[in-house]
């Protein structure tokens, strides 16, 4: 160690003593300043220390960024254990490679392992994709690489199509421009599930050496192969198998929100016969800055991203549907006119509402075509609308809904129950899958189906909004809402844990004027009856989710920590029977009005 490194170490020790950084940051900084594997980062690290950038250094080093069950996601920073950079991305790829090799050896496999890799429009996505490819190639994998911005569902499809052992998608989905991530996939084309997830996490978190070969050398040697043209065509063909003949008279405006959607949604709709699809120019540019969307966050769950598009639709006067996809094109949002008689009145639909419209349409079509059997099934998660089950029950089919949050569980259910009778997978966060070509949500196939529904409805003189009203008239009105409370910083995880423990053991007794009857804790596998304090066993999956059951049937609140961001998420549910005129938005607002201050007070003062 030279004198300069010693000086930096001394400065770090003083920063810990004066509480400018946390002890955890101090420990990780010492490692980076002394371990040979981090020698290449010393100039950057030293400059930050000399500048006294303690806030940035503490954020980047206070812990090791977790590799969750879906991958690793966070803010990009050139150095640090708690940031997305070459080191944390490299360790993620190496941990995946190590586990897959161990698994194949244990299974007695004799083939060369292979990995599919794709990336989105975010800053450094291509760099991280090449880094992952160089690591997988150095570990003996044949790498199939999509050379250009492509969607997450196409990567999922590629894993299956190329019969790969795993896959890597470089994307942070709808996170802010500052973030990036890797999602890892198993040979099914779905994100990794138990027992593989925990074992991959172990390899990543204990990675001590990363094997690399230069990307250009691996490409020249055929260890990395570009295959985008072949996979594109196969992907489009697979998605179009879902398409059905019917009306195509539909005027659509589509926005990729500066992401990859133009590579999949537009070709699929064109090939399906939808000729009047306009690309929204303001959002067309592939850009990791997401410059023309509110707060630079390209999330179709946010109604505000549709404001500019709806303004153009109103000006045109003949637009029937607006579609928007997130940066990696696995989530789909939409806006619709309320009726053709009032073309200036537009509204957005929620993920739950779109799911209900798709379920009713698909099942009705199958029943009409006499292809629906009692063995068919829908899949949703515990926090997705119960209206899906109402619809499935009416058609006499099964709903698989006892699943934790995350589309990977929907993909896993398809593997468990078989793809032959799978109809629709949906989650409230605007993720949908129809067909068996992938095991992750797919905005391209969802766009196709939603356009076919909208065109058929238009032929009847109805908008999608009016089709939703028909569904409510038949099954009852269902409303859902959600909000989150951020818990960033070095103490964020502690506060998240304490808040979840409170909801598990001492939740609020009254929400929105309704008594809370039960707290179903899926982490401990118990149900707490609030009136008596008695706990009983709870059947279902194990995970960090608390479900509060209110006294009015169909009214509930779900609470869970996010698996990808430092926040706790709250899901609110309400419903009334057919014919009721009650305003459910007021009921949900009353529940939130009690719930939010309770949660915010606890999270603010937890220690």
Topology summary:
Blueprint: H1 3-17, H2 23-34, H3 42-51, H4 54-61, E1 71-75, H5 86-107, E2 114-119, H6 125-138, E3 142-145, H7 152-161, E4 166-170, E5 179-186, H8 196-205, H9 215-220, E6 224-226, H10 228-240, E7 252-255, H11 265-271, E8 277-279, H12 307-316, E9 321-325, E10 332-337, E11 346-349, H13 351-368, E12 377-380, H14 387-394, E13 398-400, H15 407-417, E14 422-427, E15 431-433, H16 443-459, H17 464-475, E16 477-486, H18 492-505, E17 510-511, E18 514-521, E19 526-529, E20 534-537, E21 546-550, E22 556-561, E23 567-576, H19 584-605
Parallel strand pairs: 2-3, 2-4, 3-6, 7-8, 7-9, 12-13, 12-14
Antiparallel strand pairs: 1-5, 4-5, 9-10, 10-11, 14-15, 16-23, 17-18, 18-19, 18-21, 19-20, 21-22, 22-23
Helix pairs in contact: 1-2, 1-3, 2-4, 5-6, 5-8, 7-10, 11-16, 13-14, 13-17, 18-19
């Amino acid at each position: 160690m030279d004198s300069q490194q010693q000086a930096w170490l001394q400065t770090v020790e003083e920063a810990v003593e004066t509480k400018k950084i946390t002890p955890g940051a101090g420990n990780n900084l010492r490692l980076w300043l002394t371990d040979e594997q981090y020698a290449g980062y010393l100039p950057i690290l030293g400059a930050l220390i000399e500048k006294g950038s303690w806030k940035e250094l503490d954020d980047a080093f206070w812990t090791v960024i977790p590799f969750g069950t879906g991958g690793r996601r966070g803010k990009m920073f050139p150095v640090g254990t708690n940031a997305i950079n070459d080191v944390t991305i490299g360790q993620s790829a190496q941990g995946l490679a190590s586990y897959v090799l161990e698994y194949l050896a244990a299974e007695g496999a004799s083939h060369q392992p292979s990995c599919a890799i794709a990336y989105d429009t975010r800053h450094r996505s291509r760099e991280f994709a090449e880094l992952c490819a160089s690591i997988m190639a150095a570990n003996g994998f044949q790498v199939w690489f999509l050379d250009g911005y492509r969607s997450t569902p196409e990567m999922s499809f590629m894993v299956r199509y190329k019969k790969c052992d795993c896959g890597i998608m470089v994307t942070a989905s709808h996170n802010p421009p500052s973030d990036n991530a890797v999602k890892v996939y198993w040979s099914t084309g779905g994100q990794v599930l138990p027992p593989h997830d925990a074992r991959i996490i172990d390899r990543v978190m204990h990675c001590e050496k990363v094997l690399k070969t230069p990307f250009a050398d691996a490409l020249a040697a055929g260890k990395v192969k570009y295959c985008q043209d072949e996979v594109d065509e196969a992907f489009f063909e697979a998605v179009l198998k879902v398409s059905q003949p019917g009306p195509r008279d539909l005027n659509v405006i589509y926005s990729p929100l500066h992401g990859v959607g133009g590579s999949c949604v537009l070709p699929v709709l064109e090939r399906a016969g939808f000729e009047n699809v306009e690309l929204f120019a303001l959002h067309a540019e592939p850009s990791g800055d997401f410059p023309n969307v509110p707060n630079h966050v390209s999330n179709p769950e946010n109604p505000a991203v549709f404001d500019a598009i709806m303004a153009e639709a109103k000006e045109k006067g003949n637009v029937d549907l607006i579609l928007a996809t997130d940066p990696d094109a696995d989530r789909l949002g939409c806006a619709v006119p309320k009726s053709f008689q009032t073309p200036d009145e537009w509204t957005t639909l929620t993920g739950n509402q779109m799911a209900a419209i798709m379920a009713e349409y698909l099942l009705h079509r199958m029943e009409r075509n006499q292809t629906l059997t009692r063995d068919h099934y829908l899949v949703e998660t515990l926090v997705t609308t119960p209206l899906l089950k109402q619809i499935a029950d009416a058609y006499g089919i099964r709903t698989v809904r006892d699943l934790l949050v995350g589309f990977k569980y929907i993909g896993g259910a398809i593997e468990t129950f078989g793809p032959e009778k799978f109809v629709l997978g949906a989650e409230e966060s605007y993720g949908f899958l129809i067909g068996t070509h992938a095991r992750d949500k797919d905005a391209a196939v969802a766009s196709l189906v939603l356009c076919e529904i909208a065109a058929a409805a238009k032929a009847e003189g109805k908008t999608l909004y009016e089709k939703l009203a028909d569904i409510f008239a038949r099954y009852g009105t269902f409303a859902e809402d959600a909000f989150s409370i951020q818990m960033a910083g070095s103490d964020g995880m502690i506060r998240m844990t304490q808040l979840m423990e409170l909801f598990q053991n001492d939740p609020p007794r009254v929400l929105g004027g309704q008594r809370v009857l039960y707290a179903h804790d899926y982490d401990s596998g118990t149900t707490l009856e609030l009136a008596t304090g008695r706990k009983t066993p709870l059947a279902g999956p194990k995970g960090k989710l608390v479900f509060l059951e209110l006294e009015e049937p169909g009214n509930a609140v779900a609470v869970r920590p996010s698996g990808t961001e430092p926040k706790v998420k709250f899901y609110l549910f309400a419903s009334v029977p057919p014919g009721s005129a009650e305003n459910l938005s007021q009921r949900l607002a009353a529940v939130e009005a009690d719930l939010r201050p309770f949660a915010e007070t606890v999270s603010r003062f937890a220690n």
